[in-house]
Amino acid sequence: MSIRNFDAIFAPRAIALVGASNEPGTVGRVLAENLLRGGFAGPVMTVNPHEFAIQSTLNYRSIDALPITPDLAVVATPAASVPGVIGELARRGCRAAVVISAGLGIDEHGHDLKREMLEAARPHLMRIVGPNCIGVISPAKGLNASFAHLTPRSGDIALVSQSGAIVTSVLDWADERGIGFSHVMSLGDMGDVDFGDMLDFLAGDRATRSILLYVENVTHAKKFMSAARIAARAKHVVVIKAGRSAEGARAAQSHTGALAGSDAVYDAAFRRAGLLRVGQLDEMFEAAATLATRLRVVDDRLTILTNGGGAGVLAVDALEAEGGRLAPLSDAAIARLDAVMPSTWSRGNPVDIIGDADGARYAAALDILGEEQDSDAILVINCPTAVASPMQGAQAVADAVVQRPQRPILTTWLGGTAAAPARAFFAARKIATFDGPDKAIRAFMHLHRYRRNQEMLMETPAAGVVIGPDDLEAARAMVQQVLATGRTVLTEPESKQLLSLFGIPIVQTLLAADPEEAGRRFGEVGGPAVLKIVSPAISHKSDVGGVRLNIRSAEEMEAAARTMLETIRQSLPDAPLEGFSVQPMVVRADAQELIAGIASDPTFGPVILFGRGGKATEVIGDRAIGLPPLSSVLAREMIASTRISKLLAGFRDVPPVPLDRIVDVLFRLSELAVLLPEVAELDINPLLANAGGVIALDARVSVRPASAALVGPAIRPYPREFEQMIEIGDGTSLLLRPIRPEDEAALAAMVERCTPRDLRLRFMGQMRAFPHQTAARFSQIDYDREMALVAMGEPDEAGRLSILGVVRLVSDPENEAAEFAVLVRSDMKGRGLGYRLMTAILDYGRRRGLQRVYGEILRENATMLRMARELGFETEEGDPQDDTVKVVVAFDARTPA
């Protein structure tokens, strides 16, 4: 993960175009025109061995002949020449290149041209955009290093796309609508610079307010997720994912694998990162514009105010299709509306105030509806009539926005000529306006989904489960034993034993080698009982007659086993049959059949699945996907996003299922996916759930050597390896461990027990307490980017552990330098805890390979400055404009001080 030399891409001092041309209709000519006419302030030097001048500009016959070294090179030469060109540029000192050339695959001589290009760039740390891309545009810098057909306006939206055709289409669409860009990047084949790098750069780019992504595939999921989560905290990030292929699902051995199609996994990844996914290009800009209005909604309950019943019905249809809800009207609001509206008004939501509604009627309705607490936003619709002025209604909306700025209002003034002045009026006042109710509804749901995704980044989860080391070792041993026999599929009893080791409730399951033993096993489980075939070749046992229910005697069990063998041998003569499983038949009143499991995605690694189970689970397709590690918040969000969640909540005389039991199962599956990379797929189907809890009736697990897992979790899980016991100066032993998301409350409590002076020295300003958003940001960290170690004290009266001190390192994208910060609870100072925290974080920095660890310390903080000197830090010149701060640096954290 790196944004090294990105200044050479987006703010170069000099540019070279290698492959420039005067020939009409060529890429080299268009590139030259765009570069030379874009308004770039520095020199643009063209390179072509056969030309004296390009576009009336002196041309150079070779890279060596260039009078100065370019920061950025644009390369548009034949594919076979590209590795050599990149090598020459890199040796010359060029720091970045945009490779327009396509066809960098395996040539007729067996040379991998893309690999050779990257190898030529790597020793010189040269960055490559492309190959096979349309180029890079930064309008504010006058930089158009592309062969796009136009140079876009300057703006605050960044566009990053794998497809060059999408770039040109979007630029054309945006130009017609007057939309500008901060940067436009065509990534092409992503030989070097990819989405993760661009998100890292744009997250810190002051010129960019919103980021639009057109994604065909993600190449480095862990880098993408890490960068996306950081960018989404700072900017609006809207994404289109092209290609909804389910190729990965076709080869799956389980229901879970079949349901976890690649598009569903991408969708889960985008939500987890806090991005807003849309389906169409115009919707992408709509979403960016809507988010830029800074409207904020709490939930998905909408009030519709209209002067036309038909338009209101269309809005309701669109809202239902998008998954939103109509807000209920309170009795008080209905009574107040009765007093001021015509007797024919709708007396419900949509609030139809009749076609002759003037501005005063709109104003009266908005005044009443603006006080409704169960409404999250108001959509105001106006249909043109001959008896009322559209502009009067528009003015009423504008007044309502001023009077209640906290109440989100969206508008749809239908029509053409009559509605145009009102829409212009709204646009001038930055009031969200749309030319149709469907677009307005879509915008409202964009706001809702974006808020939900953002809140998921900040929700405080409950404490997760911890799998005991003995159980984990037993699970690993069992999997290794299975692999040692050459098998890749666990038997049903083995699968259930694995679940049991991870604390998931299972039904008693016994293995029988033949029909006679199956009959004897009946006495151990009692009746009624269930008989199932055991075969690594049969995934869906009921499809081939491999399941028999409600068996009530040993004799019936044995006879059923014989019949089952005969049936399966006739239909599947080559299937290896390993015997039978015998289990008691579990009958629970009002139970729902669920599915929960693990699948392996080739891009994002292990994923967790939850949904409606049973034989028809794949047909119904009611499921949710999540990326481990899961939190309680994420698990509950997965459950809530399924249709079966409505049944789980209870209905009529059916009591609700305790969701914490299902959340616990998903937690434990998440732990299993992280701790046992040997598990390729895992199915619990059905997971039976009712008011009494949950129990796994059937399970199937497929395994592979851990080394065969293509990718690990896309989000780095909690790093247990950094847990340790430490001893401070007075002999007290404390647990030192990485911070967890559920530590938010304890972290805030620690801050409350620090003196104002200690907080000022740590945060370099007044800090009285941690609000939720701040505490969540400090406790929910990306372990790939930063580390925070907390020293834990004894539990309080409620059994909650307290945090006595915390130390933190935040590294740069290159993983070379990191800034430290440390805070010790005021009543723990003077006992050596701060020194012990600092030595621990420096040890971590050495293990991570950091080259530089630094920190800013107020000059008055003599204690911290003294400790830094004792730890081997040196003082560095800080900001010359601020003499209150000193910068201390460990220049090589890999070498012990």
Automatic annotation (TrEMBL):
Keywords: ATP-binding, Ligase, Nucleotide-binding, Transferase, Tricarboxylic acid cycle. Residues 734-894 form the N-acetyltransferase domain. Gene3D superfamilies: 3.40.630.30, ATP-grasp fold, A domain, ATP-grasp fold, B domain, NAD(P)-binding Rossmann-like Domain, Succinyl-CoA synthetase domains. GO terms for biological process: tricarboxylic acid cycle. Residues 496-532 form the ATP-grasp domain. GO terms for molecular function: acetate-CoA ligase (ADP-forming) activity; acyltransferase activity, transferring groups other than amino-acyl groups; ATP binding; metal ion binding. In the N-terminal section; belongs to the acetate CoA ligase alpha subunit family. This is GNAT family N-acetyltransferase. The lineage of its organism: Bacteria, Pseudomonadati, Pseudomonadota, Alphaproteobacteria, Hyphomicrobiales.
